[in-house]
Amino acid sequence: MRQRRYPSDTTDLEWLLIEPLLPVPACQTPRGGRPETHPRREIVDALRYLVDTGCKWSALPQDYPPFKTVFGFFSRWSARGVFNLIRDHLRRRIRRAMGTSPHPVAAVIDSQSVKVAATVPRSTSGYGAGKKTPGRKKHVIVDLKGLPLFVMVTPADMHDSIAAFTDRPVVPRLTRWSDL
């Protein structure tokens, strides 16, 4: 077990909330699989570090598991909807603690245009006429308490009213660490 040294590392209480929401390791399923080499808490800490700092996968500090391992877990968990499950579970828990219904009845959507580099393919970006910028848009849907319900990235030319009815991101998922 590595020493906890980064602000993004999970606390013991956070880990108690997150651990039961992660999928069962393959080695513990009837189908079987190899035992995991690295503790899952270190994988989660590495993912939180990446999100917190915005660093490249290959720039992950040496005291975390190898970045290809971390990316492998990220890809598998993303495909299985694990991060959505964690978000939804924690949001319901927070809403209950606030004394409101665990399920929101109204939501607010907003977006932010982000410029992209010239190397970004045109198929995943667009021209936002309102801000006159080429790029992508980050759409965020929150409940009335400000808790996230959904986050989506689209080309910049997609209007919020259209994004609100889109059930999946328009920007394709990255499937390999080399795509980053």
Chain-wise SSE layout:
Elements: H1 12-18, H2 40-53, H3 67-79, H4 82-97, E1 107-115, E2 126-128, E3 133-143, E4 148-155, H5 160-163
Antiparallel strand pairs: 1-3, 2-3, 3-4
Helix pairs in contact: 2-3
Question: N-to-C terminal Cα separation, in Å?
Answer: 28 Å
Query: Percent helix among the residues?
Result: 25-40%
Question: Mind describing the biggest β-sheet?
Answer: 4 strands, antiparallel
Number of helices: 5
Overall pLDDT score: 84
Question: What is the 3D form?
Answer: globular
The string of secondary-structure elements, in order, is HHHHEEEEH
What does this structure look like?
- By secondary structure, the chain is an alpha+beta fold.
- It folds into 2 domains: 1-103, no CATH class; 104-171, no CATH class.
- It is built from 5 helices and 4 strands, in the order ααααββββα.
- It has helices at residues 12-18, 40-53, 67-79, 82-97, 160-163, and strands spanning 107-115, 126-128, 133-143, 148-155.
- Strands 1, 2, 3 and 4 form a 4-stranded antiparallel β-sheet that branches.
- The longest helix is centred in the middle third of the chain and has 16 residues, at 82-97.
- The two termini are 28 Å apart.
- 13% of the residues are buried.
- The model is unreliable at 169-180 (pLDDT under 50).
